[in-house]
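Input.
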Amino acid sequence: MNQKQRIKQINEYLLHHNELTVGEACDLFKASPATIRRDFNLLIVKSEVKKTWGGIALTSAANQSSMSPVSYRQTLFAEEKSKIAEEAASYVKDGDIVIIDGGTTTFFLGKFLSQKKIRVITNSILIASQMDKGRYKNSEAEVFVTGGMMYPSSGLLVGPQSIANIKQYNANWAFLSVEGISGDQATNSNQLVVETEQAIIEQCEKVVMLADHSKFGKVSMSRICAIEEIDILITNHHPDNAQLIAEIGEKGVDVVEVR
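Output.
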């Protein structure tokens, strides 16, 4: 990947996460710290970002409310997200009713759930399509899609109609994606998405949050729920998150780390 390509992807990443450290960028773009610092300095000189301790951030916090295209976000830590989704799917048994929030980690659930004899409600056209492709016969997963307004470049259905439809269902499991996990809350950057996620939580017996390691220690604009409202938090193992994971576990959350 050349510098121009990296700069483009760094900008897209910042639209979604607001901040990026040198270490995260090295992992993400498979580049050396010296290379990443040169990229960061170029963006700083052009006044596109501001320097932070160990990295860079967008100059306007308002940009936290925007979402980068889902096709790009699905490429970030794709292997880790797939392993997280596979672990999450192992909790679901035939006969269960599941509500899946649209997200780049929950997207991978489709291929692991499509052949189970379950019912799935989702506000994601992409997840519904993924599950439909994975079905071999009609006796496998039944898929219900909420109505609502399609949020641009996401495949997500949000808004009052989506929430009203979700409230018509009762389910065993809620599977949610997240943009930020701290010691006391789960957060996301888009208010419409958060309102839908809150409705899903209310209708489900168990809440499972799927979050790759890059989401830990971050707080986005809108609060989804208190950390104690999460029954199971599934992530990939990363040594930098050990202390925060221990703190979350002490609050009664079952934290599962995949490797």
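Confidence is low (pLDDT under 50) at residues 61-66.
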